[in-house]
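User: Hi! I'm working on a homework problem where we have to compare a predicted structure to a textbook description. Could you give me the structure for the chain below?
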Amino acid sequence: MKSHSLFFLSILFIFAGGCSTDYQLHRSVFINDKNNPGLPEYSEWGYNTFGTYIDRKVFVSDEYNQPGKIIINNDSCHLLLSGRSNTENISLEFAFKGYSPADYSGLISLNNTTFDLKGKDCIVLLNDSKGSRKLTVYEGSLFFKRVQKLYVDKVLTESILSGTFDFKTIINGEPVTFSNGRFDLGIGNDNFFKF
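Assistant: Happy to help. Predicted structure tokens:
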């Protein structure tokens, strides 16, 4: 009787996904930051989350949008963050001219790199219900604090980009601050694009 029970539990475990190779690395893990309510805690684990305050409104990753993508277009790299603010879908795009890695493993060169967002080689775009707008940044930066490679069973699976951003701009004729921005994104074959 005991051996039949163990056999049944073993079969149940196998069919429940015990032998699955789908590591679900694309899923988001949102841990609320108690010091910055509504934003995810800063992490470097590939939790596939980001968040920032737009003035006092929260803009964060969600379960419906791919939180981060890297798009290489000619000689520029675009970091696209997509999520929601209240019920509105929004995306924020940072573009860096003169940087174009061949694949997601090349993103490791961003480790400990800061971009001055008001510099001539940086572009910031906001996409919302009003369309796509290039933002004029008056001060601010984006810091890739840590970039690391993630291996699963000795195979490179993704690069994890973790960092922070803050900047000030004008939207609809009014000064706006993006503050306490943070991101922790796994970038692999499914969200790295080169055109």
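For your comparison, note the following. The first helix runs from residue 2 to 18. The first strand starts at residue 49 and ends at 54. Good luck with the assignment!
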